[in-house]
Design a protein that fits this description.
heterotetramer; A alpha/beta (427); B mainly alpha (305); C mainly alpha (101); D mainly alpha (183); A: 427 residues; alpha/beta; Rossmann fold; Cytochrome-c3 Hydrogenase, chain B; 3 domains; three-stranded antiparallel beta sheet; disordered C terminus; C: mainly alpha; Helix Hairpins
Chain lengths: 427, 305, 101, 183
């Protein structure tokens, strides 16, 4: 029976839960396109735990909880796009490119399903965090009838809410590898029902993502065509991931596939896909009126700023772009729908620029307009500033709307790491 | 029909249709994502099922274990009960009840209970949020749903599904009550929490009520959910498209063609229409669909008189 | 199945409802006791219609009126619970010694 | 055939009473609400075996929504999520038990001892059709009154729970605002 099931199961894409460290955005997008792999949203649906990218040394231990959430049979694979890593035993490590990774994932999944490889035991002991029964007058673990800390957990606190009813608050930590949030983003939130009352940003458990191409453009002249194609590709990957979270995974895959090997000649196909995104009604149904930002707070944040009506673009000062007749696109509403419209408009604009640029080069001279905003030589990435907007924007939203706002901002939590790591290391 | 045969028939029909729904879902997915070659789609649901069956079930901290085990079975049972109310061909009625359309409605409304239990029992944040979403969604679509379903009984002057079908001999209800079918399909999507109205099991909740479920329990849940969709499509075919009525072909074939036509529309819309916000979905139910359903009732009632 | 058996079942349901309505502290649980009593009432009414009225449809009509009463009880009950909670932050009867606002 | 119907009746009868009893024996809010729903579903099934198909099915249809709302209200307003913190929510247990048992015995005795006329419905009639004719025929006034009563209750309930009332926010008491002295 087990053999039969295992043989049948080999035909299905391997359910993989990815835990993505720094520098893996593109690799993750490529992996989503592989028909033999299915990247799932929760570890409960996975067989393989895929740890990819780089983490600060201590953080691998934090993966234990995710590992133990995967039901048996389970197996872990480590992979780094850039090259092999040394802190992992060879048996769990995959060296090589995407194809080697996919082959390895299928192989280990087949082995663990057919029983030739043992399922990994849980890392953490399976015990209750505190004793559960038999304390207190009612056996509920607390003092009195309505107070105390039942089973070691404090009772929920009450707080005012939008209906004028003081109901219980639930404090939870979500992330850093929640399928619905960008990898590495960890939030401490207080919920009343599904309404967010308070948000706190936790320092991410992921090392800095290095936008190498963009940082290089700060110092040496780089072909405009290359930069603009990079920008279009970045936005397409963003669009693919955001569509997946909005439950349009097939359309998202089509977008991600476009991002691979993008050339200015793909413009027709890009426009067809973007028109299809518009036709899903996503602006009207899911985004309009959500997460409007104050234009005075988003200077330098690229698409977020331009969607709020600012003509804020470092490319305006670049003589090469002036020569190409560059004018930034902008929108007025400042909400999530406008940010989607903004990026989608910038995809076609970038393709257009890349097509017309020829072999012209741009010289950043200490400032470059990256896909998330202004990158300067002082090292603070625009993603860091975007993350700072979250507490104010998310407070008072329902969870689903909050997720939509987070994706509409194209948050880069690793930007926080780059800024707060000196203090974080001290604390 | 003897009870044993009836149960077997409904079970087999449901399994076949659910498999076809899974194939359709895969083919539409591949099509939208721009991949050619759909040959793989026919075997894929089987492999996926085998994979889930080889997985162990997961355990959360202090779940309501009985309710957690009950919920998927309850949902599947409701799909089967809803299907029994529908004549599959002339005279082939599994449960011959006078108030068949009320039986169907009662079974579908109970879906809310199964989903709420499924989310609540896991004792985990996102499943509970999914459960709350189901309550809000089902309550806002259930009144327009009941209204348009009951309106199809007006021309038939009976609550029996068989008589509702035979009352469409001269004219299908989809023509007689043009508002009915669209409202029915939208609210039916809500009850089967299928895309684009899969809010209780949405990705922004990492899978919602099924976020903590794995293995065979997840397979049963997915099959049960698809069986609700099948029942919705079959009733849509019976109540609005004349069921087994039609020229040339045998009745059961007409019924199958109409049912799968509606299923194709429902599955297709999941890939082409964005999932609305919770607030938009609730507003849609109360401020758009409910008034339209009332118009449907009044106009159809006046025409029947 | 006989009228006597039906009435005994309805009496048992009613007894359970009485116990619930008197013993529970939470408002919503008390409402559940009331609903259980109304459930028994519906059963008894339909039993009489089935066994004693010769199929007079007014018996079923009475059952529908009881159902409407049940819906009214629920709506008023939920509204009261919400209002009391808003003003007093209490949802159990022990906390409401005085009913003055 | 009547043997099967009898058997089903007793199954549903036992189920209705047992689940009705379990409503008050569980310490989980959601279980309490859904045990009550199970009791209603069992009574609905009994009504179907009594040929009151429409009533039985409508009862089942109504209760799904109502009991889900009950569960949500308890989750909202009870300060201790039972299950996380099981505790006894019962007071005056003995009095209540005696009253419940007394009610059962008294009503059951009435049911058994009183001599009700034995007039079952004549075969060949369709109770659902009869009910429909009755509702929209002679008893339309009763039916309409029930509908109007429900509408009035809906408006009343919304007025009762709405946060902003005639004299300000509901949680600020219902006193008239004091007129401010103007300079």
């Amino acid at each position: 029976m087990r053999d039969l099931l295992a043989r049948l199961a080999v035909g299905a894409p391997v359910p993989v839960f990815p835990v993505a460290g720094g520098g893996t955005r593109e690799a993750l997008a490529r992996l989503r396109l592989r028909p033999d792999v299915h990247l799932v949203d929760t570890p409960r649906h996975a067989i393989v735990l895929l740890v990819l990218g780089e983490f600060p040394p201590g953080e691998i231990a934090g993966l234990a909880a995710v590992h133990d959430m995967i039901p048996s049979p389970r197996v872990t694979v480590h992979w780094t796009p850039g090259g092999p890593r040394d802190d992992v035993p060879r048996s769990m490590r995959v060296d090589g490119d995407d194809t080697a990774l996919v082959a390895a994932l299928s192989r280990v999944a087949g082995e663990v399903l057919s029983g030739t490889r043992a399922s990994e035991p849980p890392i953490r002991p399976d015990v209750d965090p505190v004793e559960w029964r038999g304390i207190g007058p009612y056996g509920h673990g607390g003092k009195g009838m309505t107070g105390g800390t039942p089973f070691g957990r404090p009772l929920a606190e009450r707080a005012p809410d939008r209906d004028g009813l003081e109901l219980d608050q639930l404090s939870v930590t979500v992330g850093p590898w929640l399928g619905a949030l960008p990898p590495g983003l960890e939030l401490g939130i207080k919920l009343q029902g599904d309404v967010i009352q308070e948000v706190e940003i936790h320092p991410p458990a992921v090392t800095l993502e290095r936008p190498d191409g963009w940082v290089r453009a700060l110092e040496v002249p780089v072909p405009v065509a290359e930069l603009e194609l990079d920008r279009a590709r970045h936005h397409l990957v963003w669009l693919g991931e955001a569509l997946r979270v909005h439950d349009l995974p097939a359309l998202g895959q089509r977008t991600l596939r476009l991002a691979q090997g993008l050339t200015p000649g793909d413009r027709g196909e890009v426009e067809r896909v973007l028109a299809e995104v518009r036709r899903t009604g996503i602006y009207r149904l899911a985004l309009r009126g959500l997460g409007a930002v104050d234009p005075s707070q988003v200077g330098g944040l690229g698409p977020v700023a331009r969607a709020a009506g600012l003509e804020d673009d470092a490319r305006l000062d670049d003589p090469t772009y002036q020569e190409l007749g560059f004018r930034p696109v902008s929108h007025r509403g400042a909400d999530a729908a406008d940010r989607w419209r903004q990026r989608i408009a910038e995809i076609t604009q970038s393709l257009d620029l890349a097509g017309r640029a020829g072999d012209r080069t741009a010289f950043g001279d200490g400032v470059v307009e990256g896909p998330r905003g202004r990158i300067t030589s002082d090292g603070i990435l625009p993603g860091a500033v975007t993350v700072d907007l979250l507490p104010e924007l998310l407070t008072g939203l329902e969870w689903g709307d909050a997720v939509a706002v987070v994706w509409s901002l194209d948050v880069d939590p690793t930007g926080v790491a780059s800024r707060s790591s000196p203090e974080g290391a001290a604390a | 029909m003897s009870p044993a045969w009836a149960v077997a028939l409904v079970g087999v029909l449901l399994m076949v249709s659910v498999y076809l729904v899974a194939v359709m879902e895969t083919i539409f997915g591949l099509r939208v994502s721009g991949v050619r070659g759909y040959g793989r789609a026919w075997a894929l649901p089987m492999s996926r099922a085998a994979l889930l069956l080889s997985q162990r079930r997961s355990v959360t901290e202090r779940p309501d274990a009985q309710a957690w085990a009950l919920a998927p079975a309850l949902l599947g049972g409701l799909g089967a009960v809803a299907l029994t109310a529908i004549p599959l061909a002339a005279g082939v009625e599994v449960a011959d009840v006078d108030a068949g359309i009320v039986l169907f409605g009662a079974a579908l409304v109970q879906v809310m209970v199964a989903v709420f239990l499924h989310g609540w029992a896991a004792n985990s944040l996102f499943p509970v949020l999914g459960a709350f979403r189901m309550a809000a969604l089902a309550l806002s679509v259930s009144i327009p749903f009941s209204l348009v379903v009951i309106t199809t009984a007006l021309p038939a002057e009976s609550l029996s599904v068989g008589l509702i079908i035979s009352s469409q001999e001269s004219l299908w209800n989809v023509v007689r009550q043009p508002l009915g079918l669209p409202i029915y399909l939208i609210t039916g999507l809500g009850f089967s929490f299928w895309a684009p109205l899969q809010l209780p099991d949405a990705r922004d909740l990492s899978g919602g009520t099924s976020a903590e479920v794995s293995g065979a329990a997840l397979l049963v849940w997915r099959v049960a959910r698809a069986s609700i969709l099948v029942a919705v499509a079959a009733m849509g075919a019976a109540a609005f498209l004349g069921g087994y009525l039609g020229p040339w072909l045998p009745g059961w074939l007409w019924m199958a063609v109409k049912t799968f036509g509606l299923l194709a529309i429902l599955v297709w819309s999941g890939h082409r229409i964005a999932r609305p916000r919770m607030e938009t979905a609730v507003k849609l139910g109360w401020t758009v669909l409910l008034p339209l359903a009332l118009v449907d009732v009044f106009v159809s009632g006046a025409l029947t008189l | 199945m006989s009228l006597d058996a039906l009435l005994v079942v309805a009496a048992a349901l009613f007894g359970a409802g009485v116990y619930g309505a008197l013993s529970q502290q939470s408002f919503v649980m008390i409402m559940m006791g009331l609903e259980l009593m109304l459930n028994a009432t519906i059963l008894a009414v339909v039993a009489f219609w089935w066994g004693s009225t010769g199929g007079n449809p007014e018996g079923q009509l009475l059952a529908i009126v009881v159902m409407a009463v049940m819906a009214i009880e629920a709506a008023i009950g939920f509204a009261l619970v919400t209002n009391v909670y808003r003003v007093r932050k209490a949802d159990i009867t022990e906390k409401l010694r005085r009913l003055r606002g | 055939m009547s043997g099967i119907v009898d058997f089903l009746f007793w199954v549903f009868a036992v189920a209705a009473v047992v689940t009705g009893w379990l409503v008050f024996r569980t310490d989980s809010m959601v279980r309490a609400a859904y045990w009550l729903m199970a009791s209603f579903v069992a009574v609905g099934a009994i009504l179907v075996t009594l040929d009151a198909q429409f009533l039985g099915l409508i009862l089942i249809l109504m209760m799904a929504g109502e009991m889900t709302i009950m569960a949500i209200f308890m989750v909202m307003y009870m300060m201790n999520p039972a299950g996380l913190n099981p505790m006894t929510m019962v007071h005056q247990h003995r009095t209540a038990a005696v009253a419940g048992a007394g009610a059962f015995v008294a009503l059951a005795l009435v049911g058994l001892l009183a001599d009700f006329p034995d007039r079952p419905a004549p075969s060949g009639t369709d109770p659902t059709v009869d009910l429909g004719v009755e509702l929209l025929g002679e008893s339309m006034l009763v039916f309409e009154s029930a509908g109007v009563a429900l509408l009035a209750v809906m408006i009343g309930a919304i007025a009762l729970v709405s946060k902003r009332g005639r004299y300000g926010d509901a949680d600020e008491g219902s006193e008239e605002p004091i007129l401010e002295k103007t300079e």
